[in-house]
Design a protein that fits this description.
Layout (H helix, E strand, L loop, with lengths): L3 H9 L4 H15 L2 H9 L2 H8 L26 H13 L10 H23 L6 H17 L1 H8 L2 H11 L4 H18 L3 H14 L5 H9 L4 H14 L3 H7 L3 H8 L7 H16 L1 H4 L4 H13 L17
Helix pairs in contact: 2-5, 4-5, 5-6, 5-7, 6-7, 7-8, 7-10, 8-10, 9-10, 10-13, 11-12, 13-16, 16-18
């Protein structure tokens, strides 16, 4: 009634880029509320955001096709704000009464399909000049996955998106790898994949890097000094170890068992925390815990009892003098 939203829309449709950037930041706050999302869906905000990103689609959208008109993108300074705002709009849940509105729900689903296409298009076509934008796009997809079980399945079922994320796990950029592994962890965690689907996605991580045994490749990364990648993989292990199939696959592998029981394997504060959470997840996974042999259970309980920052002293060596 105050005309504030009309003013925001007119400013967004204007040609002052700095003002538009500020409008996008303000709009993110509103998009974090259910009534704000409803307003954005029922008005022209999403369409304007798609225009900023240079995305143009017909009424029928295939969620597994790439789209976008890169030549039509004319406001580079607005790209990150636009994709983030779209992520907020698509992630924030509608109010309970609005979920009964079939037309509004359909509009939201249509916008989610185009948002996915736009984000994936950015991720697949970035150059060295806009690598940060590609990173933001994946962060937004990760935020979307964390929003709900249904959102996680939207991403899981998006073939091109999953392929792109898997490709990033094997790329040379440490930051990209880290976010990609964190995103996969969230998909495992929120989509609650069954054994067959979970194992297939897990095995594709290794296959994408040309490694027959996925855990070998992941443990190999943990031995390197790339912190973002390491934390992403530890997050992935944490998510997988909440499942029975994950416990069966990982803890049947001697090298992985040695890693989780070795209190000297990680030296930094955060890495030790991640590793401790892995063991906590194994212990709280009742069905998975029952699969373990008693000797391994006792060893895990001993590590948990000592806490995340305990480091065992190396075994003493007897020095002998050569004659």
């Amino acid at each position: 009634d105050t005309g504030a939203m009309d003013l925001m829309e007119s400013l967004l449709l204007g040609d002052d880029v700095l003002v538009q950037m500020n409008v996008l930041e303000i709009a993110k706050l509103l998009a974090a509320t259910s009534h704000g999302v409803k307003y954005f869906l029922q008005n022209n905000y999403c369409e304007r955001l798609f225009e900023i990103l240079g995305v143009s689609f017909g009424s029928n959208n295939d969620s597994n096709d790439d789209g976008g008109n890169k030549e039509a993108i004319v406001q580079p300074l607005l790209w990150s704000g636009a994709i983030e705002l779209l992520g907020f709009i698509c992630t924030t849940q509608l109010a309970e009464e609005d979920l009964q509105d079939a037309e509004l729900v359909k509009i939201r689903n249509d916008k989610i399909s185009i948002f996915m296409l736009a984000a994936v298009n950015i991720m697949r076509n970035y150059s060295s000049e806009d690598a940060q934008l590609a990173m933001i796009a994946l962060h937004v997809i990760r935020y979307f996955v964390q929003g709900s079980y249904d959102n996680a399945w939207v991403v899981y079922n998006h073939h091109t998106c999953i392929e792109t994320i898997l490709t990033w796990t094997a790329c040379a950029n440490n930051d990209f790898r880290g976010v990609a592994f964190h995103t996969l962890a969230d998909i495992f965690r929120h989509a609650k994949l069954n054994s067959d689907r979970g194992k297939l996605l897990y095995e594709r991580i290794g296959a994408n890097s040309g490694i027959s045994n996925t855990v070998d490749g992941l443990l190999g990364h943990l031995s390197k000094p790339f912190v973002e990648t390491k934390h992403g993989i530890l997050d992935l292990f944490c998510a997988i170890l909440t499942t029975v199939w994950g416990v069966r696959i990982l803890l049947s592998y001697k090298q992985f068992e040695d890693y989780v029981l070795d209190t000297r394997a990680e030296s930094t504060y955060v890495s030790k925390q991640w590793k401790f959470v892995m063991l906590q997840n194994v212990r709280s996974n009742v069905d998975g815990w029952n699969l373990l042999r008693e000797e391994l259970k006792e060893a895990i309980l001993s590590v948990l009892k000592n806490g995340p920052y305990y480091t065992a002293k190396p075994d003493a060596e007897v020095l002998t003098e050569e004659v």
